[in-house]
Specification:
mainly alpha
């Protein structure tokens, strides 16, 4: 589920990145803006959307076999399946990046360790956030129109901020901001599990 979405995301990211950086590379100011847009939309949004797409409900975009199953019968299941999807996504992404590294073995292992401890948690937590809003969408009868969009927007902002900090921020901010992002997402996901566990089973 999540593993297949990682391959799709990589393809979309390469296409978007090649297009943007080729078309808008004349001005330094525009180039910086395009880089920021690419980090937030071309990477963060694409990855969050394809993970969501793998677990989506048949009433949102297309029918999927997963959400017809009896195992998906409680609100909290949305968060669980999104997190599982994210872990599969992260496993493939980390594998691809590991074999694409040209550094020495020890340096490659160190970078891979950082990615596992940081990016894997990021994917899981951001998908948990999307799963929380999916669950609200399924359970609420009114005022639910924008819940999926709000979930994807929230996850994209956190994911994009994490990536931007790692890739572009100087000094201590390169590490401080990602840690704050992960802590904030973890607190929200923990609260989300507790809230959904108290809600009614799907009708």
């Amino acid at each position: 589920m999540g593993m297949g979405s990682a391959v799709s995301a990589a393809g979309f990211e390469n296409l978007i990145g090649s297009f943007l950086l080729e078309k808008f590379s004349d001005s330094e100011t525009i180039h910086l803006f395009i880089q920021i847009a690419y980090i937030f939309l071309g990477i963060a949004f694409v990855e969050e959307f394809v993970k969501y797409f793998a677990v989506q409900n048949k009433y949102i975009i297309v029918k999927t076999a997963l959400l017809k199953e009896k195992e998906f019968d409680e609100p909290v299941d949305a968060m669980i399946y999104m997190i599982v999807s994210a872990l599969g996504f992260a496993a493939v992404e980390n594998t691809i990046l590991f074999f694409s590294e040209n550094s020495a073995i020890l340096e490659t292992l160190f970078i891979s360790g950082l990615r596992f401890s940081g990016a894997t948690f990021l994917h899981a937590l951001c998908s948990g956030i999307v799963g929380f809003f999916m669950a609200l969408y399924f359970c609420q009868k009114t005022k639910r129109k924008y819940l999926i969009g709000l979930g994807l927007f929230s996850a994209t902002c956190l994911h994009g901020l994490y990536n931007f900090s790692i890739m572009k921020m100087p000094g201590d901010e390169k590490f401080l901001i990602p840690i704050l992002v992960l802590m904030s997402a973890a607190i929200f996901v923990s609260w989300g599990f507790k809230k959904l566990n108290a809600m009614q089973i799907y009708e």
